[in-house]
Amino acid sequence: MKIKVRLHHIANPLYPANFERQLLISMKGKYTFTAQIEKDSETGLNIGYIPSLPGAYTQAATLDELQENLEEVASLCLKELSVNDFDKIQSAFVGTQQIMVTV
Q: Over the stretch 42-58, which tens digit does the pLDDT of each residue have?
């Protein structure tokens, strides 16, 4: 889902002071993200992050716990986003690719 927001409406004096808050409330809903998951070789923990959502990263011992943690951190990050950033969070998953480098 792409959300387009015209910020010049927020600055318009014809709109109420709480217009931005009302707009954020109307953006509530379900969002789907693709998370990247890696295993930390030193700690053995699963590390997960959502590339399209700034600040959305976490870790856990099990994949089930990581899933719960990612859902929680995504929810928290979405609540902290400004109206201006909502149209930047959705991205399309293309794939993964392993790169081998000889040093």
A: 999 999 999 988 899 99
Q: What is the pTM of this model?
A: 0.67
Separation CA 7–CA 91 (nearest Å): 21
DSSP codes, 68-102: HHHHHHHHHHHHH--GGGGGGS-------------
Which CATH number covers residue 82?
A: 3.30.2390
Q: Is residue 97 part of a domain?
A: no
Q: How far is CA 51 from CA 61, 64, 85, in A?
A: 21, 20, 14
3-state secondary structure of 38: strand
Longest alpha-carbon distance in the chain: 62
